[in-house]
Design brief:
This protein is an alpha+beta fold. The protein has helices spanning 32-38, 66-75, 83-92, 95-103, 107-110, 118-128, 134-164, 169-179, 187-197, and strands spanning 4-12, 16-21, 24-29, 44-54, 57-63.
């Protein structure tokens, strides 16, 4: 029903965010790791969503990427894995790391997720290993690494610029880290956002 939402982050909590779009606030549950990465209150974001419907429950689950959403949908097909456990797994493992864990039959890494026992983690591996593609996992990992390298370069340049403006390196780093996700942001935008935090 809802493929994704583009809107402004109105609230962030430990397990969900509220995105305001069209004067309506949508409560969207997300993996904790992705909440930390997606941005801070006031940021415009795009979240891929899944509407979970049970007899008396309508809940929106959201993800920063289509890959995470796809893996969430696969996880909830596994017997014993509900949305809460699927989010817990995607909190401890990125989408590509989860794919590698499934392909290498690494149930221990999956079992690190809160509320997921060893037997359930083993079931995830057994039921999903034929549904996960090795080439796709490598491609996603490579995209994550190149994105991280671009972000690291932009971050370093922004820190140097803030130091030139008279801020200490630790102040600059703290301000940039408080911005949240800087993917796709140019150095100038990062500096402007960081100055608001200083």
């Amino acid at each position: 029903m809802y493929s994704y939402f583009i809107g402004t982050v109105a609230e962030t909590e430990t397990d969900h965010i509220v995105i305001e779009t069209g004067n309506i606030g949508y409560e969207i549950y997300m993996p904790q790791r992705e909440i930390a990465e997606i941005g801070v209150v006031g940021d415009k974001v795009k979240v891929y969503t899944y509407l979970y419907v049970r007899e008396d429950t309508f809940m929106l689950y959201g993800f920063a990427s289509r890959q995470s959403l796809r893996l969430f949908k696969l996880l909830i097909t596994v017997n014993g894995i509900g949305p809460k456990a699927a989010l817990a797994i995607l909190t401890v493992l990125t989408a590509s790391d989860l794919q590698f864990a499934i392909l290498s039959e690494d149930a221990k890494s999956i079992a690190k997720a809160q509320g997921v026992g060893a037997k359930t983690a083993q079931r995830v591996v057994m039921e999903l290993k034929d549904k996960v593609d090795l080439e796709e996992a490598f491609e996603e990992k490579s995209n994550e690494v190149s994105e991280a390298n671009v972000n690291a370069k932009s971050k370093a340049e922004a820190i140097d610029a803030l130091e030139a403006l008279g801020f200490s390196r630790s102040e600059a780093l703290k301000a940039i880290n408080s911005i949240g996700d800087i993917t796709g942001e140019d150095v100038e935008t990062i500096i402007k956002k960081a100055l608001k935090e200083l």
